[in-house]
Amino acid sequence: MAGKRPGRVSAADVTIFDSVGFAIEDFSLLRYLYDLSSTLQLHQEIDLVPTLEDPKDLFGLLRVRSSAAPQASKAG
C-alpha cells in the first residue's frame, strides 16, 4: 500500500484475508451512536437505497448514467 513493494504481479498471486468476526461489536457501537444522536437530535436521515422502477433490475441506475455519456461518433 505504501508502494515500497509490488502488489500482485500475476493471476497466481493470492491474498488471504481472515476476518476476526466482531461484527456484533460494530453493530452495537452503531446502534449506540444512532440512539445517542437521536436523543440529542444530531441526526439527519438520508436515503441510502434508491427507488428503482424495476426492483429486479439492480443495474438500472448504471444504464441511466452511462446513457448520459457522450456517444462515440461513427466516422465513415
Pick out its properties.
76 residues, mainly alpha, 2 helices, flat
Structure explained in plain terms:
With 76 residues, the protein is an all-alpha fold. The protein has two helices and no strands. It is flat and about 50 Å long. The model has no long low-confidence stretch (mean pLDDT 75).
Topology:
Elements: H1 23-39, H2 60-67
* Strand residues, percent: under 5%
The SSE string, one letter per element, is: HH
The helix count comes to 2
What is the average of the pLDDT values?
75
Structural class by secondary-structure content:
mainly alpha
Overall geometry? flat
Radius of gyration: 22 Å
Low-confidence stretches: none
**Largest beta sheet, briefly?**
none
What's this model, at a glance?
Helices cover 33% and strands 0% of the residues.
